[in-house]
Amino acid sequence: MPVPCKRGCGNNAVLKRPKTGDAICKECFFWAFETEIHYTITKGKLFNKGDSVAVAASGGKDSTVLAHTLKTLNERYNYGLNLMLLSIDEGITGYRDDSLETVKQNRDDYEMPLKILSYKDLYGWTMDEIVAQIGRKNNCTFCGVFRRQALDRGAAMLNVKCIATGHNADDIAETVLMNVLRGDIARLKRCTAITTGSEGTIPRVKPLKYTYEKEIVMYAHYKKLVYFSTECVFAPNAYRGHARALLKDMEKIRPSCIMDIIYSGETMSIKEEVSLPTQRLCIRCNFVSSQEVCKACVLLEGLNKGLPKLGIGKSSKVKKLLDEYNTRQNNLETAVKDLEDCNITDKKTSKTCKNISNGFKQKECNATNCCTNKTERNVEKNNEKLQTVLDKYSLENNSQVKLDEEDSDDSEIKHQDEDDTCSSSCGRLGVGF
Amino acid sequence: MAETLTVEVMFGGGAELLFNKVKRKEIALPPLKTFLPDSQNQNWTLKELLIWLKDNLLVEREELFLKDDSVRPGILVLINEEDWELHGQLNYELKENDKIMFISTLHGG
Ligand SMILES: [Zn+2]
Ligand SMILES: [Zn+2]
Q1: Is it the case that residue A403 has pLDDT exceeding 50?
Q2: Which phi and psi (to 5°) does residue B45 adopt?
Q3: Domains in chain A and their CATH numbers?
Q4: Ligand 2 mean position to A194 CA, how many Å?
Q5: Which residues form the Glycyl lysine isopeptide (Gly-Lys) (interchain with K-? in acceptor proteins) crosslink (chain B)?
Q6: What pLDDT is stored for residue A411 in this prediction?
Q7: Which chain A residues touch B if contact means CB-CB below 8 Å?
Q8: Which ligand is nearest to the CA of A148?
Q9: What pLDDT band is residue A365 in, cutting at 50, 70 and 90?
Q10: Is residue B109 in a domain?
Q11: Number of structural domains chain B divides into
Q12: Which domain holds residue B19?
């Protein structure tokens, strides 16, 4: 039995909107869906006329719908944006290689330039190779930390004003819930922000912040948008999976709970005595970090030294690992030598900047001289840095103990913000999906 | 009496991965009383269709598709391209040549 469209347009309704409960026809749905995103963009002042904007594209439903909608709105409302697609190739066989094909389809369909950056080029390791080293337990930590920085680097190369990500209302509600469940007040405070990014970084914006997942999927279906849907082949995070399942169960009973949780997150006030980590620049790669050496650099050093657990476990374990490592190396000088050798090797073999060898600004890192002349002046610095770094792992991480608990295997990912965690790819698949 | 009911089932958004990657399939349902003698319904509804799918087409673990007697929250159901929430959900009575689509929202974005 046909249900008439709530808007009185005379058409039959095709879906019930979760946000309002209204029955609505296809045309009115498209209009409402796009107009609400337009409203989110203008009210949040996400863009300025003439901006270059990178859409973080995974080939999945959210980023595909985001790219499509931004193109539509850019033309309809004369945003004057220069839109492009930015994809990260983690090097996960059977997952990312397939989804990148979808991204290339997006590039052709939406006539946007596409930039693909790979972990292999940036860090010297694919996720497949990392998983071969570390096993499947903590791979989301690596993936999330590397992806976050990879997007920053890609955005810098593209010289964009901001990065638009496909996080939807369900994702954000889930993150609020997760941060409550973990007692993670620092992230709780940040995770509902529509624009994130501190000084010196390229801001991330979330135009789909108030858009329900159901509507994104229905929109893609009715518009016949091609997207890629599969699960990440690596182990998902069980805790997040439970949070997601809980949220979906509650949403079924009362769909407005998604908006209500976001609202709660937005309006919750944080007691002043809760100390929030301050942002600074990583002494090695110069990207924003809350530590002297950023997580990506620590993880990478672990990988390159054959200590893949470095930076994952508790600080006491990190210290133990490093002590063992140093014993193996006989003394610190050997370790320093080792680091120098690494740098020299890097100079010869790679044109692409690698964290292990860098102490220079990303901005300088575009020419063929990237990791050559810039590295020279940093080799000597690294000697003292290494000492600092080694001390640091055992000392400063004390403030981090809570976040470093082993069972919260992706807790480190969101150290700075929620943007580039596996929650936008594999993390959400927690209950086996 | 012994007439079968023909409907088309479709799977998308990753739900096809639970059904051996089958994206669409025409199925012939036997009279309801031969499939489920104890059923309280006279005619096939979506509720019985889910049971039939579980018994006949589902290859992955059941809990990835079903929860209690319905689909797992996060799987959308379209009846002839329309949201099943407009059509009584589980109580929708199947008609000849209906197209029933299951779309997962739970796969990566
Ligand atoms: Zn209408
Ligand atoms: Zn760094």
Answers
A1: no
A2: -120, 175
A3: 15-273 (3.40.50.620), 322-392 (no CATH)
A4: 25
A5: 109
A6: 37
A7: 1, 3, 12-16, 23, 58, 60-63, 166, 168, 170-171, 213-214, 216-218, 221, 229-232, 244-245, 248-249, 251-252, 424-426, 428-429, 431-433
A8: 2
A9: very low
A10: no
A11: 1
A12: 5-104
List all residues 6 or more positions away from A373 whose beta carbon is below 8 Å from its beta carbon.
Answer: none
Mean per-residue pLDDT over chain A, rounded: 75
B90, part of any domain: yes
List pLDDT tens digits, range A308-347.
Answer: 666 665 555 555 666 666 666 555 555 556 555 555 444 4
Q: Residue A140: in which H helix or E strand, if any?
A: helix A139-158
Least confident piece of the model among A126-140, A167-181, A330-344, B4-18 = A330-344
- The candidate with the shortest Cα–Cα distance to A213, out of A71, A43, A430, A423, is A423
Distance (Å) from the C-alpha of residue B15 to the closest C-alpha of chain A?
Answer: 9
ipTM above 0.85, yes or no: yes
Q: What tens digit of pLDDT does each residue of A105-119 get? A: 999 999 999 999 988
- Number of Cβ within 10 Å of residue A292's Cβ equals 17
Write out chain A residues lying below 8 Å of B105, CB-based. Answer: 61, 170, 213-214, 216-217
User: Ligand 2 centre and the CA of A375: distance in Å?
Assistant: 15
Nearest partner of A83 among A103, A116, A107, judged by Cα: A107
pLDDT in tens, A251-273: 989 999 999 999 999 998 777 66
Q: Does residue A419 surpass a pLDDT of 50? A: no
Ligand nearest to the CA of A361: 2
Inter-residue contact A27 to A9 (CB < 8 Å): yes
How many angstroms away from the CA of A390 is the closest CA of chain B? Answer: 38
B89 burial (CB, 10 Å; 0-12 / 13-18 / 19+) is: middle
Q: Residues of B numbered 48-87 whose beta carbons fall under 8 angstroms of chain A's beta carbons: which are they?
A: 61, 63-64, 72-74, 76, 78, 81-83, 85-87
Question: Distance between CA atoms of A201 and A199, rounded to whole angstroms?
Answer: 6
pLDDT at res. A398: 33
Judge contact between A335 and A326, C-beta under 8 A. yes
